[in-house]
Amino acid sequence: METPRREFLESLLETPSPSGYETPGQAVWTEYVAEFADEVSTDAYGNAVAVHEGDPDVDVEVAIAGHADEIGFAVRDVTEDGFLRLTRVGGSDRTVSKGQHVTVHADEPVAGVIGQTAIHLRDGDEEYEDVAEQFVDVGVDDGDAARELVEIGDPVTFSSTTAELAGSRLSARGVDNRAGTWVAAETLRRAVEADVDATVYAVSTVQEELGLQGAKMVGFDLDPDAFVAVDVTHATDNPDVPEDARGPVELGAGPVVARGSANHPALVELVRGAGDEAGIDYQLQATGSRTGTDADAFFTARGGTPALNVGLPNRYMHTPVEVIDTADLTAAAELLAAAVADADAAAPFTASV
After folding, report:
1. Distance, C-alpha 120 to centroid of its chain
2. Phi, psi (5° rounding) for residue 5?
3. 204 and 82, same structural domain?
4. What is the bridge-based pairing of β-strands 48-52 and 61-67?
């Protein structure tokens, strides 16, 4: 991955953006795409859209979208002993939170830890407590001191950032789904460089982890001919994945084109054809009922908008140590840039009945 692209990815990953509090991450994203987009705009809730205006004689518009938000927590209460009680933001996992360093994003960042009773003092193998029963220790002695630092509703994220693993792999908190917003931005940059005829939008949505809320807003407001939602998908090549959940998704084997449910066959054909022609490796995944991504909101917008989910293989989703192969991200951007270059020839995206 080229240095400027890697620096952009790391800036996204190291900027906390829990659902409902995405502004800092959106500022990183909009600053980057403003360097090459014809126009960048945001709406009332912080959804961000950048556009390449294609040939005015070509009436085809395609949007490539990722979601900006990550899972996390928020301060629910402050005890008289000075500990913070939490509520979940999105799909936070109670089995990975205890014993972790966290940051409370108050007016000034506040360091803390989610308490974990020492193994010596526990009564056997205790069950993991629900997040609502866990607590953050920020190092103060009473509630008044804690309330001088934080307020109810302040967001909380794990403090881990990025770690380079072997080869082109890295681990980070919030890969879900800064990886997707990176691909959306990089696809747009490549479309601008190639001066593709179609109009191409790059979109960074908010509040996906709370029920695809940003995608519902953008799906109504933008009205392109097609949406491609780029999100992480489960890599199933690590040893602790149950046998009955194993699928053909491998880290480093390329982006994943989903088939079924929201995924419009014409878009599947467009992206697969572009990959085959360009010699870009991709994987396939079945989505029998729903994709679990913004595509599920996009495809029902405005009476039906052709949509597709393209996945980025990710190990250990919704943990502080998600693992991806950056080669998959680069390949996804190459694949989608090739697809939008072919979009005018493939449109209209309609079902053959």
Report:
1. 39
2. -70, -40
3. no
4. unpaired
* Residues 27-79: tens digit of each pLDDT: 999 999 999 999 999 999 999 999 999 999 999 999 999 999 999 999 999 99
Q: Is the separation of the CB atoms in 326 and 170 below 8 Å?
A: yes
Q: Are residues 153 and 224 in the same domain?
A: no
Show the domain range for 298: 3-70+173-346
Q: Are 42 and 178 in a shared domain?
A: yes
DSSP 249: -
pLDDT tens profile 262-310: 999 999 999 999 999 999 999 999 998 899 999 999 999 999 999 999 9
SS3 content of the chain, % helix, strand, coil (to 5): 35, 25, 40
Which are the catalytic amino acids? 208
The predicted model scores a pTM of: 0.96
337: nearest Cα among 270, 250, 286, 291? 270
| Number of structural domains the chain divides into | 2
